[in-house]
Request: fold
Amino acid sequence: MYVELLVFSSAIGWSGRGYDKPCGTNTNRPAIRLRSIASHSSLSTHSQQFHLLALALRDLREAAKLASDCPDVLARLAHLKQYMHYVRLRHEHDNTRDKDRRKELTLAALRHAYRTRYSYMNHWEAMRQSWTRKAASEFEEPSRAFN
Reply:
C-alpha cells in the first residue's frame, strides 16, 4: 500500500490558519498527486519501492515548478521534501546489508528527524524512544540510547 498526498498547487492557498483563497491567478491548474512509500509493505521488491520513491521525488519537483508563484504552497512542499528525504534514508537503511552503512544511515536518519522535528513531518519522539534503543543494541553502542 502506498500513500497518496494531494497538493493543490494553485486551487487553494495556505496561510497557517486554514485554506483561505486561491493562490496566484490561474486556479484551473490540476492537483498534483505525490506518491510516497511511507508504507511499502505491499511492494514486493526493492526495485519497485525505489521506482515509487523516484516517482514521488519527480512529482515534488514538478509541483515546485507549478507552484513557483505561490510561496505558501512552496513552504508546504518544502515539508514534503523533508519527509521524502527521511523516507529515502529509511528505504536505503532497510535495504542495506552492510552493517557500517546501516549504522551511517541510522545516524543520518535520526539526525535528520531530530533537526526537522518542529516541522512535524516525522514522529521524532517515537523514533527517540524506540529506534535509538534498538540501534544502540544493534551497533553495540549503549551510550547512544536515549532511554
